[in-house]
Amino acid sequence: MPNFMMTDMATNHFATLSETHIFSGTALNEFRFGFNRTQRGSDSIPLIDYNPSLDFNPGQGFGQIRFNENILQLGQLTPLGNSGLRANDTALNLFQATDTFTLIRGAHSLKFGVNLERTQENTNSLSGTRGEFFFNNLEELLQARPYQLEGTVLDPSKSRARGMRQTLFGWFVHDDWRVRQNLTINLGFRHEFLTDPTEVNGNSGNLRNITDPAPTLGPAMNLSKRNIAPRVGLAWDPTGNGRTSVRLGAGVYHNQIAPRESTNSDPYAALSYVVANPPTYPRLPANPSPSARSETTSQWPIDTPTVIHYSLDVQRQLTSTLSARLGYVGSYGYNMTRTTQQNIRIPRILADGTKFWETSFPRPNTNYINIVQRRADTVSNYNALQATVQQALRSGLMFGASYTWGKGLSEADGVANRTVDNGGSFVSLDKDDPGLDYGRSSYDQRHAFVLNSQYRMPWDRYLTGGVVKALFGGWAINGIWQYGSGMPLNVQTAFNNSRSGQASAADRPNVLPGASNNPTSGATVGCGGVIPGGEKLRTPNRRFDPCAFGLPPAGSWGNAGRNTIDGPNWNQVSFTILKNTALGESRNLEFRAEFFNLFNHPSFGLTNIQIFSSSRQYAGNAATISTTASQSRQMQLGMKFTF
After folding, report:
1. How many Cβ atoms sit within 10 Å of the Cβ of residue 458?
2. DSSP state letter for 195
């Protein structure tokens, strides 16, 4: 941000105590205790003197001028001012105690263990008090026409300092059973859970029912305690000669929801609010209307996100230096988290079962405008074929090549402000039906290939003289080739066409009859008088054809799926020439010439996924790319002397 600086000060302290007790040659106990303390303070301060009268909120410091997420992601305009997320001070204490007992009985190697973690998180946050005004473009900024204001009002009679406390309990049993000389079976069972997070002074709560007038004082979340995780594995040498291995495994894994992920705001010391088309720019309203209040909360109770992982792997030693591996990996996740806006307008259900909105329709809770909720009710899956070839050093050559062919599907990919930049809005389209967002995960990369190699020049053994060796000996070349197919793009209407009242619009357009939902081949057909026909697709000027999509009638959602369009590929080669010159037995001089993106191949950056403007017209810059994800070709020379 021009003329503003982010400050981030942190200190870390770590201490570990361990004790290993050998009872016998077949019985061993390991105890560990650890203490971690992390303190961090962050803020955003101006680098120039400015008139304090410019503060949006007098006495709090200059706030922030922001633009819609798509403009920010494309790098067309940057924020100006102090981040609305600062200032923050956090001190985290983590106490950990683990004990593992190992017992060997015949063919069984047994392990029993317990784990205890106590978290103390102390925070003091002024987030939101400076205010953030949002604009769609530079023109609206110059005209002083923000489309949204976000801010926080503090209660002067209450402290915003909070001390959250939470404990993790876990225990496990595990058995490595050597059935035969060439066959081992692994069996395991784990149970772990987090206690509900509490605040030391009782100043935390949760909006347990969406229609509640205020949060209920108490724990910020009600977490599941039934987190059972069995595991099974197999390692088999079918030939018995140590050249082939088959590994098979499956297990259940839980992603515990930590206190800081509860997303609950602080209803007992601050009031967050959102104002659409604020009339008070450049000032925050002195007394925000109750209808502008916003709240963040968690589903009550909330299940633990769970993933079942499974894999099959076959590895073969082909020669003394060459090996190959072929494997299948997969996973299925349930109770995965997503972000919803629960206080959207109540729709009318039409005869065909679709939803319809008018701006006059009421919201479920008239005490708030926005209620952002963390929920754990979505699914995901991933399946991939993985192949690897590894050549150890032989005749001066070594290399490794890996290829993954995979597919990831999900109903949601994260709960932060955005997951990955290509994914657009992070909010579910329908709070009541996450299945409408089931499609390619924002992380779905179908093809990924990496080749790395090194070759030492073969003529060293023919060099005899000292000077000749110094000039012509020790040369080698390295190379890395990386290729990845594009992440999917999620086209959007760019505004709340459905009139549902979502603050972070997730609306998608219609796929026009006869058109593809992945229109990245051929040329544009032309539409709206702003997108000419005949433009070649899969270029920075037009990654896909916006004319394949149409704007749904106002008050309704479009039929386009989530993440249906292929994004730009990544393709880059880097190359190194190096020379080692021995200067005696213990000294060496190394010279390197490194070429990054050797062929200067552009890998393009983020695509404008917003098809329409708020005036309901096609956007002329839809599907365009203005940045690159790769750097241009660079060369650097280096020399290192070791002794």
Report:
1. 10
2. P
**Tokens representing residue 630 in the block:** 């790769």
Would the pTM count as exceeding 0.70? Answer: yes
CA-CA distance, 324 to 401, in Å (whole number)?
10
Q: Is 489 exposed, middle or buried, given 0-12, 13-18 or 19+ CB atoms closer than 10 A?
A: buried
Residue 43 tokens read as 């803020």
Q: Is 289 exposed, middle or buried (0-12, 13-18, 19+ CB in 10 A)?
A: exposed
The single-letter code of the amino acid at 405 is W
| DSSP helix/strand/coil, 411 | coil
The DSSP call for residue 628 is: B
Q: Using CA atoms, how far apart are residues 439 and 455, in angstroms rounded to an integer?
A: 43
Please name which of 367, 333, 362 lies closest in space to residue 348, comparing C-alpha atoms. Answer: 362
Look up residue 438 and give its two tokens. 């089931």
* C-alpha torsion sign, points 181, 186, 187, 188: positive
Alpha-carbon 82 to chain mean position? 24
Q: How many CA atoms lie within 13 A of 65 on its CB side?
A: 22
Non-local CB neighbours of 499 within 8 Å, separated by 6+ positions: 345, 357, 358, 359, 361, 554, 555
Concatenating the DSSP letter of every residue in 207-242 gives: --STT-SSPEES-S--B----EEEEEEEEE-SSSSS
**Apex CA 617: angle with CA 613 and CA 621, to 5°?**
60
Q: Fill in the amino acid letter for 482.
A: Q
How many residues are listed for the chain in this entry? 643
Contact 433, 338 (CB under 8 A): no
**Could you tell me if 210 and 342 are in contact, meaning their C-beta atoms sit under 8 angstroms apart?**
yes
Q: Per-residue pLDDT tens for 494-519? A: 888 999 988 776 799 999 999 999 99
- Which phi and psi angles does 467 have, rounded to 5°? -70, -40
Kindly report the backbone phi and psi dihedral angles of residue 254, in degrees, each rounded to the nearest multiple of 5, phi listed first. Answer: -115, 135
- What would the pLDDT profile of 38-91 be if each residue is shown by its tens digit? 998 888 777 777 788 888 888 888 888 888 755 555 556 777 887 766 778 889
Q: Which residues of 577-603 are buried (b: 16+ CB within 10 A; e: fewer)?
A: ebbbbeeeeeeebeeeebbbbbeeebb
